[in-house]
Write a structure and sequence with these properties.
The protein is α/β, with parallel strands linked by helices and about 650 residues long. It contains 17 helices and 22 strands. Its cofactor is Mg(2+).
């Protein structure tokens, strides 16, 4: 092999493939300065990582979310307050408010929609082909406050575990940190682990209880080449909705408690049994009405007020679409929540006037089974909440009519569709929407609509028949549950889908602030790649040149190799520091919800595959035309990154942690 370059030319070799112009050099300096300011700002935030000592060695455990008195006994667990105080957390952002940005119906001239209020498109969708638009209720139309609602769920689940399942009284001292967990995680029931997985099903972060798994532990359990895990089936549970935050957090607490010296009462239970008991306790909380009664008593304490929701529903109905509600909640709770959301009513002030915003209401759907052939469809008497049998959707009249209310039977004839009103037609001006109860005009300037029908159970075929749609592609459905609302609706019946991801509010705000950090990370990767290539050249030359190991040439090139290796290590360390700090800024434990290092997370991958549209809140639709032609983004492959450098972040990362 030819003689290696002298040391004097090493710098030019190392920077040959990296940006080397004066402008790129200045950009690098600017990025570095901004990144240092980012890291300094991060250090001032109270986002300390969990630190848990080994009780086996110290007989002391820093236990997350439990308070107990100090004790000198070696057999007693010393539990102290959690050393972490996260920022506002994911999923806590309230819906958009009037005045944030002009609504689409309020301006004749277009204006740019601010990023936090945007709806993002994965798959092209022409709204003119959509005949019916549906919504889930919980965490879709109704955005719950996790700091209160999930805390209540955690408290009541603990109570069920103690009183109904015989768990020790110590569980009553468990506290809940609502912003510790986030969506998209995977629970390993057998091992008692909480995992964050990337789009290639590679576990990037893992915790056993509140003890972080090492890289070697993750590799042995999940990331070995001979394993092919899809993290589905009975051995795993997915944190697919914000309803699961309290459940996931409590599972981590139970695992930690079981492994501790004071958790002897749980030593005989497997981690899988812990989760099974926990899941049963959560179901009890929903079945016995304890959660619902608290929400009904004070909806404002548990649900964000959304002042633009009525405007969105009115606009969509005025465009000629049929609007439906399809929720797993049953009628009594649905009536409570929708009264608060659309009428601002609670208690004795509740009515069924909110039904005027919908053509069809389906409660107790039982999704995702709803998207397959399912059980009997019942009509709901909205006055009493009683159910009536139906035959193929047609009501069955009881023998003794005196035993039922005199409420009119629902009309199950397919709804007729009127065309979207023309902007120039009389009575159809944009500002007239505020005076509408929904529905098309009857020609006299007054809204005309059919009495809404309320049903329980059934399946999508019943809904299609009532709406008068002939294929799933004519339906757009908005939901928050990636599997129960989006994946199944897309896979099973071909509905077009809109995923509501309230975490985007936090994600987008931090993303805007971190643009310079991403630029420096890209530059550091390019420099490291160049140095790595030069290091391998030195190694190859030393191994294949035939030089005498005692010669001066061999010694010089060995010294250059060591210098290059040191620079490579420094670049790798710097890169890891900046990337880790960036992720901790999003969440001090789990990092960015849609990323794992540079890779998209499993959750983000599912969004890309199954959600035609996604946004932070349903009310963001108020900023767009109901007849909009949504266009998907341009797909960029790795070889196209040269022409589209701004899109070049979907590249493999050799960093195992962040």
């Amino acid at each position: 092999m030819a003689c290696l370059l002298p040391k004097a030319s090493l710098t030019s070799v190392l920077t040959r493939r990296a940006p080397s112009s004066r402008q790129r050099s200045q950009k690098s300096q600017n990025c570095s300065m901004l990144s240092q300011r980012w890291l300094k700002d991060l250090s001032q935030k109270p986002c300390l990582p969990i630190s848990i000592c080994s009780y086996a060695s110290a007989r002391t455990l820093r236990y997350k979310g439990v308070a107990a008195s100090n004790s000198s006994s070696n057999d007693t667990l010393n539990i102290i307050a959690a050393p972490i105080s996260s920022h506002q957390g994911y999923g806590s952002a309230p819906p958009p408010q009037p005045g944030d940005h002009p609504l689409w119906v309020d301006e004749l001239l277009p204006s740019f929609v601010p990023t936090p209020r945007q709806v993002f498109c994965n798959r092209a969708l022409n709204m003119k082909h959509i005949k019916a638009i549906g919504f889930d209720m919980d965490y879709t139309l109704a955005q719950y406050r996790p700091e209160t609602f999930e805390a209540l769920a955690h408290q009541q689940t603990v109570e069920k575990l103690v009183t109904r399942f015989g768990y020790p009284e110590e569980l009553r001292s468990f506290t809940f940190s609502w912003d510790y967990m986030m969506k998209g995680l995977v629970i390993d029931k057998n091992r008692g682990n909480m995992l964050k997985v990337d789009r290639h099903k590679y576990v990037k972060i893992g915790y056993h209880g509140f003890q972080a798994l090492t890289s070697e532990e993750r590799k042995t359990m999940y990331n070995s080449s001979f394993q092919s895990l899809n993290f589905e089936g009975n051995d795993y549970a997915l944190v697919d909705t914000l309803f699961s935050l309290a459940e996931a957090y409590l599972f981590m607490q139970l695992v930690e408690f079981k492994d501790s010296p004071v958790g002897k009462a749980l030593h005989e239970k497997s981690y899988h049994q812990l989760y099974k008991d926990l899941r049963s306790a959560v179901d009890m909380c929903h079945r016995d009405g304890s959660l619902k009664k608290s929400v009904a008593a004070d909806p404002a304490k548990f649900i964000h007020h959304d002042p633009l929701l009525r405007k969105v529903l009115r606009t969509l109905r005025a465009s000629g679409r049929r609007i439906f509600l399809a929720t797993n909640s049953i009628w009594d709770y649905t009536n409570v929540v929708m009264n608060y959301l659309l009428l601002g009513e609670r208690g004795s002030g509740r009515s069924v006037k909110w039904l005027d915003y919908f053509d069809v209401v389906m409660v107790g759907c039982g999704k995702p089974a709803f998207f397959n052939d399912r059980g009997q469809l019942f009509s709901v008497d909205v006055g009493t909440g009683l159910l009536r049998n139906t035959d193929e959707g047609m009501p069955i009249t009881p023998i003794d009519e005196a035993d039922v209310s005199e409420a009119p039977l629902p009309d199950l004839r397919p709804l007729s569709f009127s065309p979207a009103p023309s902007p120039n037609s009389s009575g159809s001006s944009l500002s007239s929407l505020d005076s509408m109860d929904g529905g098309a005009s009857n020609g006299n300037g007054k809204p005309q609509r059919m009495k809404p029908s309320v049903f329980q159970g059934g399946c999508y075929k019943d809904l299609h028949r009532i709406l008068g749609v002939t294929s799933g592609e004519q339906v757009l459905y908005a939901g928050d549950h990636i599997y129960g609302d989006i994946v199944k609706a897309k896979q099973a019946i071909g509905w077009r889908t809109l995923l509501v991801v309230p975490e985007l509010d936090v994600e987008l705000a931090l993303q805007e602030q971190a643009k310079s950090v991403w630029a420096e990370l890209r530059l550091l990767r390019t420099q490291r790649d160049s140095v790595d290539d030069q290091m391998q050249r030195f190694e190859w030359a030393l191994a294949h040149s035939g030089w005498d190991p005692n010669s001066e040439a061999y010694a010089k090139n060995l010294a250059m190799l060591k210098e290059t290796a040191a620079r490579h290590d420094a670049l790798r360390s710097k890169h890891s520091e900046v990337l880790s700090s960036l992720h901790r800024r999003h969440h001090p434990i789990w990092g960015q919800i849609l990323k794992t290092g540079y890779q998209n997370s499993r959750f983000a991958h599912q969004i890309e595959r199954y959600a035609c549209l996604y946004t932070s809140h349903v009310s963001n639709l108020a900023y767009y035309s109901p007849n909009k032609r949504w266009q998907g983004r341009c797909d960029i492959m790795a070889h196209e990154d040269v022409d589209f450098p701004e899109a070049g972040w979907n590249v493999e990362s050799d960093s195992d942690s962040y």
